[in-house]
Amino acid sequence: MTITDEQGRPEPPLDGDEATTLLDFHRATLAWKCAGLDAADLRAAHPPSELTLGGLLKHLAYVEDHWFSYVLAGRERAAPFDAVDWTATPDWDWDSAADDTPERLRELWEDAVERSRAVVGEALANGDLAQRARRARLDGSTPSLRWIVVHMVEEYCRHNGHADLIRESIDGSAGE
After folding, report:
1. I need a labelling partner for 156 at 20 to 30 A (CA). Which of 54, 139, 145, 147 fits?
2. What predicted TM-score, i.e. pTM, was given to this entire model?
3. Which residues make beta-bridge pairs with 45?
């Protein structure tokens, strides 16, 4: 049985691995910070930063797809990330979020998270967190699943801090 807190986030199990103790909790934190907001709210920045909650959702959807599906599983990028010229537009995920509806942003992120959960589930069914990714990084190194999970926890922790500040500037909601 999964226990959830007052924001609907799963309480991490006391004896789980990095994927189950940390990653889903931080994913749920992002969902909580973006809940109930309309298009204008998802486009709102907290100056002097230009970060938006919509940009965070789209960026984290891309990062989920990149590390789990593309690097770990060796699959091709999912749409819409497969059609982006990342060299010409390295901030595409951040910049293009303003053109998306709240529903589209949430769908992109939720779909990427579900694909990531499936990839991690498949990987753990065939090995442990020490297994290596199928695709090497640009420097030629091949990260372990543990490294990828910890990196994703870092991504979410950093960006959830941003999300907390942005959300508070929108409607005064603050927490943890």
Report:
1. 139
2. 0.92
3. 52
Other CB atoms within 10 A of residue 154 CB: 12
Q: Which two tokens stand for residue 141?
A: 């190194």
For 78, other C-beta atoms within 10 Å of its C-beta total 18
Q: Are 13 and 1 in contact (CB under 8 A)?
A: no
With the C-alpha atoms ordered 149, 153, 159, 160, is the resulting torsion angle positive or negative? positive
Sequence-distant (6+) residues with CB within 8 A of 139 are none
What per-residue confidence (pLDDT) applies to 176?
67
Contact of 70 with 135, CB cutoff 8 Å: yes
Question: What is the CATH topology of the domain spanning 34-171?
Answer: Four Helix Bundle (Hemerythrin (Met), subunit A) (1.20.120)
Residue 27: the pLDDT is: 93
